[in-house]
């Protein structure tokens, strides 16, 4: 007998990870997981007309069995999730993997408890980096500039640097850069490339403010209806998928930065000629200071308010080696 | 789920709509019924987040703000003086005051998204003068009905906002894309009026020549409309503001004009608020209903089924667009344009995107076809409005006859847009790069 | 009902003016002084949600919810009345539906203590309560109208029903415009 799982995927608009890794995985669900007779009815979130901020609620209700969770967006309902990706916490992929290893179990436990959801895997969309039209040589130059941000932690960090954070939805950013509504904007280099940001900016600094974590969640009822053998296969399938995304995400990042700055090899995007501003040691240190100075204290307050012991759990796992 | 099921569902829905039940109720009922069949009661718990998500959407906030803007300017008596001024300037062109109708509608269009109130106001001011000067009734009425439709093409436009939210494309880009087609269509209407008058004179009196000093002095009446348009479009062009922000700026400035006119009173605001609330409620309920129906359409894979079906027809992009043109022409005869938009956009946009057509460009195409729908019988809002304004008790066929050539012009213009997409895409691209 | 419409419109209008003022100030300050008040977008979203639920009420009182009346106007009076009656009922059911599915949103927000991921960290229950209250009034009004329409329908006063609950026609809307034009 065939069983159909309803799957809500990443938005089509986000680009290559969705197109080349996620969608093919679900289209060949049975082969990929070894779950014979299983089919995934895959619908990207933007096609469904449901807002990504509502994903946890939708998953809990059971309308979908598996959801590719946009962790930053759904943190509205469960701030614990943000502990995976505080601003400045994961300057590179290596650190990101360690953070996920340490903190994903905490998030999983919380999601099972309150959202009837099991976390199957966490992966990064990729480093969120800086694009500017005015010349910048270091992060200190953000002082006095208007910077498009996509969430609150980042907004506070930009304020700390002396810039003005401007929250704008992704589709309006290209135009806003073109007309000077904002001077700088932060996103992944690959999304920036496909949205044409390099056409309207001149400088880019590939320093990771965040890794833009996403994850797969499965409705617990669906999960519990599977046999132990099936559960193992499914988990193994998602482990493979997440690992595949981690690798691809990093390749994509290097390639996209090359494309944006006119270097080789550039295979995944349009070639542009942005000036590459290499982050200095001081810049990296500055981003790192965001954790104790801005993102952790702010997050601690919000998170502990709804999930007691949330920040303690973080300190015991991720924060253990952070000298905080 | 095959094409047949989709057609059955669609026929049931059309039947319910044509019987005269509220469009929003029918759409929600179809969405819920379809969803329950496909998914069961779990769908209901998920509709809540959809309802909140659609209501709490900052981009859509521009809709009530632009409606309020139009109401403030309209009810402060701006249109009356604007007409008189334009009459001084355009009245001596071949075709006379008919140009003033088009010009006044176009100017008003630049400050408001509502075409009913615009056509009604300009019509009321214009018709007595037009009749007195023995303009042929069909020509006068046709120019008013057609001129009124410019309101939704020339930004700000509620219909472009609705398109942008349903098709998830930038409303700012859509507004910018609407400017050149709006101006060209206005000029095309004027050229047609001149040609019509030269080939078969309409028999109207010529206006007396007016001294330049009077003409120049009258220009001050155009200041409020020009200011508001410059604020709205300027702030979007120059990147000072998003559409919602530009609407807010314009509302504050318009409030200033009303105050300056000495019209700012509780009674005045009450009328504006009431009209704005009514129109907003009407539009947003339909949009919320459309998003509810959308969830079912998407989850049921109906959008995919339709796309695949159209793909299977093997049409080229141009053939597809001309097919859609006929489809919208027919639909527009029987449906009001907002219902037409919300019912078709979620299904049609994925199809045209798959065919490699720019969704921003397509927004202008859809709005042009909506304009056509406003002046084609039997259901053509602007035809009713203009017929209602006249006080000579002439036949309704006058209005229809007068509007027919404009329908032809708009279809011609839409065809031109298909062959030269740059008409709509050039400006946003030139500004974006 | 008309008084209610007037006051609901007032609250709606004042919210929109307040929002315009706030957003305009935010925009000007951002451009001229490079500082941001933050949260204009967020406020715009909440105002729309609240305003929309109020606007539904006004549109219902003023019979402005869109209906396609091309055939309707040509039906015999009893059929028109029956459809008008069903239309009122359908809006009542719609109001109930909104209340029912909206409740899931409210109860989830309460359960999770959801807070907007924005500079204001607005507890979502505030704007959602205002929104839900608007929906509740919408449902309540529609029940009152259902009662009125049912009474007319079952006592056979079909003319009266058709007159009171017909969709507002272009002529009616126009005559209203003309009245207001005379006052200017
Ligand atoms: Na307009
Ligand atoms: Na029509």
Description:
The complex is a heterotrimer of chains A (324), B (433) and C (184). Helix content of chain A is 47%, strand content 17%. Chain A is built from 13 helices and eleven strands. Chain A has helices at residues 16-27, 29-33, 45-48, 55-61, 71-74, 93-115, 152-160, 170-179, 189-194, 220-224, 228-261, 281-306, 310-317; strands at 3-9, 38-44, 66-70, 117-124, 129-132, 146-149, 164-167, 184-187, 203-205, 213-219, 275-276. In chain A, the strands form two sheets. Chain A has a six-stranded mixed sheet. The longest helix of chain A has 34 residues, at 228-261. Chain A is globular and about 60 Å long. The termini of chain A are far apart. The model of chain A has no long low-confidence stretch (mean pLDDT 90). Chain B has 433 residues and is mainly α. The mean pLDDT of chain B is 86. Chain C is built from six helices and no strands. Chain C is flat. Chain C has 184 residues and is mainly α. The mean pLDDT of chain C is 88. Chain C has one domain. Chain C has helices spanning 2-33, 40-61, 77-112, 125-154, 158-165, 170-183. Classes of the chains: A alpha/beta (324), B mainly alpha (433), C mainly alpha (184). Chains in contact: A-B, A-C, B-C. The interface between B and C is large, with 78 and 83 residues. One sodium ion binds at residues 332-333, 373, 376, 379-380 of chain B.
List keywords for this structure.
heterotrimer, A: 324 residues, alpha/beta, six-stranded mixed sheet, 13 helices, 11 strands, 47% helix, C: 184 residues, mainly alpha, 77% helix, flat, binds sodium ion, TRAP_DctM (chain B), cell inner membrane (chain B), cell membrane (chain B), TRAP transporter large permease protein (chain B), transport (chain B)
């Amino acid at each position: 007998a065939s069983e159909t799982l309803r799957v809500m995927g990443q938005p089509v608009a986000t680009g290559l990870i969705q197109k080349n890794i996620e969608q093919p995985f679900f289209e060949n669900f049975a082969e990929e997981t070894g779950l014979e007779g299983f089919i995934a009815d895959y619908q990207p979130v933007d096609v469904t007309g449901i807002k990504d901020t509502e994903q946890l609620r939708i998953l809990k209700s059971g309308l979908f069995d598996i959801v590719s969770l946009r962790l930053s967006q759904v943190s509205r309902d469960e701030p614990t999730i943000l502990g995976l990706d505080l601003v400045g916490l994961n300057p590179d992929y290596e650190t990101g993997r360690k953070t996920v290893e340490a903190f994903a179990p905490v998030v999983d436990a919380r999601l099972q408890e309150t959202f009837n959801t099991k976390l199957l895997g966490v992966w990064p969309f990729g480093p969120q980096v800086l694009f500017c039209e005015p010349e910048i040589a270091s992060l200190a130059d953000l002082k006095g500039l208007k910077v498009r941000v996509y969430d609150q932690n980042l907004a506070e960090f930009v304020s700390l640097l002396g810039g003005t954070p401007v929250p704008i939805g992704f589709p309006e950013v290209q135009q806003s850069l073109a007309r000077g509504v904002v001077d700088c904007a932060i996103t992944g280099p690959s999304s920036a490339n496909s949205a044409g940001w390099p056409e309207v900016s001149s400088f880019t600094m590939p320093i990771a403010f965040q890794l833009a974590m996403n994850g797969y969640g499965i409705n617990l009822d669906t999960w519990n209806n599977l046999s132990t053998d099936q559960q193992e296969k499914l988990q193994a399938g998602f482990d493979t998928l997440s690992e595949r995304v981690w690798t691809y995400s990093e390749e994509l990042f290097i390639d996209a930065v090359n494309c944006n700055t006119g270097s080789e090899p550039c295979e995944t995007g349009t070639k542009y000629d942005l000036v590459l501003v290499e982050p200095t040691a001081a810049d990296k240190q500055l981003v790192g200071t965001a954790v104790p100075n801005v993102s952790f204290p702010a997050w601690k307050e919000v998170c502990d308010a709804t999930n007691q012991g949330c920040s303690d759990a973080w300190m015991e796992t991720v924060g253990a080696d952070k000298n905080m | 789920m095959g094409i047949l099921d989709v057609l059955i569902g669609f026929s049931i829905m059309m039947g319910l709509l044509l019987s005269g039940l509220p469009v929003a109720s029918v759409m929600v009922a179809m969405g819920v019924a379809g969803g329950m069949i496909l998914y069961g009661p779990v769908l209901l718990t998920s509709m809540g987040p959809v309802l909140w998500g659609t209501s709490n959407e900052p981009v859509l906030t521009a809709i009530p703000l632009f409606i309020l803007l139009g109401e403030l300017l309209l009810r402060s008596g701006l249109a009356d003086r604007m007409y008189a001024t334009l009459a001084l300037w355009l009245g001596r062109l071949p075709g006379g005051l008919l140009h003033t109708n088009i010009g006044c509608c176009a100017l008003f269009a630049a400050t408001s998204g509502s075409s009913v109130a615009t056509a009604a106001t300009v019509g009321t001011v214009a018709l007595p003068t037009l009749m007195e000067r023995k303009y042929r009734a069909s020509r006068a009425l046709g120019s008013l009905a057609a001129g009124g439709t410019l309101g939704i093409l020339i930004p700000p436009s509620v219909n472009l906002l609705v398109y942008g939210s349903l098709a998830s494309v930038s409303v700012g880009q859509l507004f910018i894309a609407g400017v050149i087609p709006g101006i060209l269509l206005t000029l095309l209407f004027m050229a047609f009026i001149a040609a019509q008058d030269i080939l078969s004179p309409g028999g109207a009196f010529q206006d007396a020549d007016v001294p330049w000093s009077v003409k120049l002095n009258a220009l001050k009446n155009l200041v409020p409309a020009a200011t508001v348009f410059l604020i709205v479009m300027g702030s979007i062009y120059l990147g000072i503001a998003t559409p919602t922000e530009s609407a807010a700026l314009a509302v504050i400035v318009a409030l200033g004009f009303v105050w300056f006119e000495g019209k700012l009173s509780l009674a005045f605001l009450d009328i504006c608020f009431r009209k704005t609330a009514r129109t907003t409620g009407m539009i947003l309920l339909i949009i919320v209903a459309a998003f509810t129906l959308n969830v079912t359409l998407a989850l049921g894979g109906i959008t995919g089924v339709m796309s695949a079906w159209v793909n299977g027809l093997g049409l080229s992009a141009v053939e597809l667009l001309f097919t859609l043109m006929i489809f919208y022409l027919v639909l527009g005869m029987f449906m009001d344009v907002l219902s037409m938009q919300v019912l078709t956009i979620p299904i049609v946009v994925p199809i045209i995107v798959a065919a490699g057509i720019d969704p921003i460009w397509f927004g202008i195409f859809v709005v042009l076809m909506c304009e056509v729908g406003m002046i084609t019988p039997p259901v053509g809002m602007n035809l009713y409005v203009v017929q209602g304004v006249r006080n000579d008790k002439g036949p309704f066929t006058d209005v229809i006859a007068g509007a027919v050539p404009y329908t032809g012009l708009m279809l011609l213009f839409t065809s031109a847009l298909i062959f030269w997409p740059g008409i709509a895409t050039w400006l946003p691209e030139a500004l974006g790069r | 009902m008309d008084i209610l419409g007037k006051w609901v419109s007032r609250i709606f209008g004042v919210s929109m003016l307040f929002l315009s003022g706030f957003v305009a100030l935010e925009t000007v300050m951002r451009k001229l002084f490079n500082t941001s008040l933050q949260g204009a977008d967020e406020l715009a979203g909440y105002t729309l949600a609240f305003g929309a639920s109020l606007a539904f009420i006004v549109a219902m009182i003023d019979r402005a919810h869109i209906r396609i009346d091309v055939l309707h106007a040509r039906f015999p009076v009893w059929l028109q009345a029956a459809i008008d009656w069903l239309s009122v009922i359908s809006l009542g059911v719609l109001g109930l539906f909104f209340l029912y599915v909206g409740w899931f949103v409210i109860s989830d927000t309460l359960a999770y203590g959801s807070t907007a991921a924005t500079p204001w960290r607005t507890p979502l229950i505030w704007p959602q309560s205002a929104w839900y209250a608007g929906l509740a009034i919408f449902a309540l009004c529609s029940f009152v109208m259902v009662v009125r329409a049912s009474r007319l329908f079952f006592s056979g006063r079909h003319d009266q029903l058709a007159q009171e609950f017909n969709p507002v026609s272009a002529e009616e809307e126009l005559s209203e415009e003309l009245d207001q034009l005379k006052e200017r």
